[in-house]
Write a structure and sequence with these properties.
Oligomer: heterodimer
Strand content of chain B: 35-45%
Shape of chain A: elongated
Strand order of the largest sheet of chain B: 2-5-1-6
CATH superfamily of chain A: Ammonium transporter AmtB like domains
CATH topology of chain B: Alpha-Beta Plaits
Structural class of chain B: alpha+beta
Order of helices and strands of chain B: EHEEEEHE
Radius of gyration of chain A: 30 Å
Distance between the termini of chain B: 9 Å
Helix content of chain A: 55-70%
Strand content of chain A: under 5%
Number of strands of chain A: 0
Radius of gyration of chain B: 17 Å
Number of domains of chain A: 1
Largest sheet of chain B: 4 strands, antiparallel
Largest interface: A-B, 16 and 9 residues
Largest sheet of chain A: none
Chain lengths: 481, 112
């Protein structure tokens, strides 16, 4: 009797244990078609989708806020940065005239850009210039344009690039300071903006551009992160052409024409330095690690260049001038512009130092020996600095900072000479060569046409009276009131 | 009545004004001027080129005083302004035909 009971108990235990286990454990193999499971899956999918949308929104918010800030910083570079920098360097009687040249660009180029400029620079066209698809900003709204940036509205790109289009012709005014008619300047620089700036911007940054390094079909993919060729070479070389065409100021070089206010120029230069963070780091088109690289490079190159020019001048003259220091800083800013998103910080120091010394040489020796009146050294700093910077970019571009070229599998390929890709120098030379050519030809044609239609230079009496009185009927300073 | 014009170094203006007040002279006109005599200018640099600035800042004081006050005034100025170096300045004396107080039409020495 006991043995039969024991066997029964054992049987019950054997059968009962798994049954008990099944009753309390989770259902590890749920039936996928059960409605409860379906609802759970749907809820999880919705949550993931919401999370992705939130992340994208945060990314966009970060990128857009940096880009809008950068656009404001770049505008600050023109007004009042460049206005003060140039204004302080001219004689007192020309201060308003000089500032008005920059301010006029802020107004005129904006209108032209809105109507046609953005389309010509960034629309679809051919390898040399964009088309008319965005005339009157048609189609340019808050949806991102995936050709340029996926996380920010296209209008952000448009307004950011507008600030570049504004400052570029304003830079040229340095070469014809104190002697060009306000009306002729307005017409000349407006036409220059459409016929020289927009094509160059398209070739380097526009979709399908001949020199655009992001364009896999580009004939000469050249590295120009923020506009060393587009902005500085074009404006600097055009400045040289203009000052040669117009001729020297009356009395140059026998009469001394020192700056009437180094204080204003100093303030302007510092505004340029700070604003340039928007110019270079904003060219990353995102609030990204690349923007950080560009920011750091910009600052390092500027400091090194200011020191380079200062030391060169100290040796040359025996004293370090404030004008030399701030000019060196601007030369460094110009030279690092094409390189800012491609090079490592130590390379940026080298680029700055080299540019500071070379540009000081251009201004001290080359200008005085050749005798051209590039009044505010637009060519010596922007033309020469931009050329030096564009070439040095080909040397120092490192794929570890910005992997522009990739192989079929998506692995980064060497960028510049420092990575072993010496062939990039040919692309850089192409970019530099095209910038020089389009500037020389375009500027000469426009100068000729505008001169024939309305005359470019002010009369000798007006030049003696000063632009403030002759062009604007005003006095910049009236300390007697 | 005579007019005394003194061209001085700007840094001596305060000392000369104090000396004149102490001498009993209360009216004066002060002008900012530029110029040079035998004093050479200084060199400045612009874009790597050295140039000489020979229009140096000066201060000019103009006083009209009675004939009796002439020597006392001149001595007050010289005493305060002299350093013994080139650039100390110059004093010119010229006769004055008439002096009129605008407020009440007083004329002659009482107008000074």
């Amino acid at each position: 009797m006991c043995r039969r009971g024991m066997k029964l108990l054992l049987l019950l235990a054997l059968l009962g244990t798994p049954a008990l286990a099944l009753a309390v454990a989770p259902n590890l193999n749920p039936d996928p078609s059960a409605p409860a499971t379906q609802a759970q899956i749907a809820a999880l999918q919705q949550a993931i989708s919401n999370q992705q949308a939130a992340t994208a929104s945060a990314q966009s918010a970060g990128d857009n806020s940096w880009m809008l800030t950068s656009a404001a910083l770049v505008l600050l570079m023109t007004g009042p940065g460049l206005a003060l920098f140039y204004g302080g360097l001219v004689r007192k009687k020309n201060i308003l005239g000089t500032m008005m040249q920059s301010f006029a660009m802020m107004c005129l180029v904006t209108i032209l850009w809105a109507i046609a400029g953005y389309s010509l620079a960034f629309g679809h066209g051919n390898a040399f210039v964009g088309g008319f698809e965005h005339l009157f900003l048609r189609g340019v709204g808050v949806t991102p344009n995936l050709d340029y940036a996926a996380t920010i509205p296209e209008q952000t790109i448009m307004i950011y690039q507008l600030m570049f289009a504004i400052i570029t012709p304003a830079l040229i005014s340095g070469a014809f300071a104190e002697r060009m008619k306000f009306s002729a300047m307005a017409v000349f620089l407006s036409l220059w903006s459409l016929f020289v700036y927009c094509p160059m911007a398209h070739m380097v940054w526009g979709v399908g551009g001949l020199l655009n390094s992001s364009n896999i079909h580009a004939a000469f993919p050249s590295f120009d992160f923020a506009g060393g060729t587009v902005v500085h070479i074009t404006s600097g070389v055009s400045a040289l052409v203009t000052c040669l065409y117009l001729g020297k100021r009356i009395g140059y070089p026998q009469t001394n024409m020192p700056p009437h206010s180094m204080v204003l120029s100093f303030i302007g230069a510092c505004l340029l330095w700070v604003g340039w963070f928007g110019f270079n780091a904003g060219s990353a088109l995102a609030a990204s690690p690349l923007a950080t690289s560009a920011f750091v490079n910009t600052h390092f190159a500027t400091a090194a260049a200011a020191l380079g020019w200062t030391v060169a001048e100290w040796i040359h003259n025996g004293k370090p001038t404030a004008l030399g220091a701030i000019s060196g800083a601007v030369a460094g800013l110009v030279a690092i512009t094409p390189a800012s998103g491609f090079v490592q910080p130590m390379s940026a120091l080298a680029i700055g130092l080299i540019a500071g010394v070379i540009c000081s040489f251009m201004v001290f020796e080359v200008k005085s020996r050749l005798g051209y009146d590039d009044s505010l050294d637009a060519f010596g700093v922007h033309g020469a600095g931009g050329t030096v910077g564009a070439l040095l970019t080909g040397i120092f571009a490192a794929s570890v900072i910005n992997p522009v070229f990739k192989d079929a599998a998506g692995n980064p390929l060497p960028s510049g000479a420092i990575d072993g890709h010496w062939g990039q120098m040919l692309n850089q030379l192409a970019g530099v060569g095209i910038a020089w050519s389009i500037s020389i030809v375009g500027t000469l044609v426009l100068l000729f046409v505008v001169d024939k239609v309305m005359g470019l230079r002010v009369s000798a009496e007006d030049e003696a009276a000063g632009l403030d009185l002759s062009q604007h009927g005003e006095e910049g300073y009236d300390f007697n009131t | 009545m005579i007019k005394i014009e003194a061209i001085l170094q700007p840094s001596k203006l305060d000392a000369v004004k104090d000396a004149l007040l102490e001498a009993g002279i209360e009216g004066m006109t002060i002008l900012e001027a530029r110029g040079h005599g035998r004093q050479k200018g200084h060199t400045e640099f612009y874009r790597g080129r050295e140039y000489t600035v020979d229009l140096l800042p000066k201060v000019k004081i103009e006083l009209v005083v009675t004939d009796e006050m002439k020597e006392k005034t001149i001595q007050a100025i010289i005493g305060a302004a002299r350093t013994g170096r080139i650039g100390d300045g110059k004093i010119f004396v010229s006769p004055v035909a008439e002096a009129i107080r605008i407020r009440n039409d007083e004329r002659g020495e009482t107008a000074l």
